[in-house]
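ok so I'm stuck.
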Amino acid sequence: MGEAHAAETFPSRNVGQIPVLTLEANKAEEQTAKHTDAAGVKCLRAHYPYAVMLRETVTDSQPQSRLERRVAAAAEAMLTRDRSVCPVEVLAAIGWLPASLVDDWRRGRVDHLEAVLSVHPDKLAAALDHLRRWAANQGLTPSEVAYVAATRDRRPLRFTADGDQATERVWRTHWTPPDLPESARARLTQQQSRAPDLVVIEPLNQWTCTGCGGSGSLLLMEAGGPLCMACADLDHLVFLPAGDATLSRRAKKASRLAAVVVRFSRSRKRYERQGILVEEAALEQAEAQCLADEDARARRRERDRQRRADQDVVLETRLAEAVLFLFPGCPAERAEAIARHAAVRGSGRVGRSAAGRALDEQAVMLAVVASVRHQDTGYDELLMSGLAREVAREQVRSDIDRVLATWQHP
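replied:
not stuck anymore, here's the structure
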């Protein structure tokens, strides 16, 4: 909050000096947006009365505030990644909405989103208006998305303390590219409006149900506290462990009621999925379907495995060519070995990174340096002797530079 407040200086509330933004003063801009967008300006001014006081003379050629630049950068990144932009995700991207607090809100543990926002209403409304104007300038198409809590009653989520419907619509508005096909836009809206999964926790410590005073191996966290499966009306569901993605997907699809089971990992400091709870009839149906097409799925897995292997060969070949392009003096067999090692699927090595697959020069260089460090210097022996990694790397740096120079200028 401190950084956010320090970043912006808000205009005076003297309306005579700084005119309030009106629909008439922005007709040219708002002709590109829907009526819901125009209504958003009015409701923002009403809900956050001191914030939407933007100069009517502002143009694209004038310097943007830091907040406007941050909002635009976050929105552009989101549009590129998801083909959709929404206020909640933008505010999360600029650091105003921590993911844990958004999760509490989505789980129904917070009455409204404003309760977890530590940003002054002036700044909040300014950010929302910057986002609205950015979307209008980009010619994006607005659509309203339903936000539903991950609770048994699937109640609508609230954004504001007073529940003002006009302001709620501003928060629920998502923007998509104008060239997005209508069918794709409808699918995206349906996906975004889908209620989150119910989450059941496998607790690590002793706990007490707030409904009956009992306990159990699983709990559902509600706003009033943890509930056992009986009090949560989930005790008729059966547990399906994780491991068979097809079986889990089919069982969940067939089950009218389902929940994801997670357990907190102390080592990784996060909740990890353990399986799902589904209706027994749904599980039996999914098992029958999996048995019926087991051979077909096995053949498809083999085809996928072969396709991935072919892709790996292509990547290794291109990566070896990139190594030889940067280091003409590198033996061909060594370049192939470097590429093969760096491009192992699932290894997390530089060859599997986005930059490595794009044959970025820096990524190729890192792969070569790593190979030289381990195979052409005494780096591994230094590590075995107990020397710190940073110190060992510094000691072999000159040896690495000497080999690279030889390969670059044979």
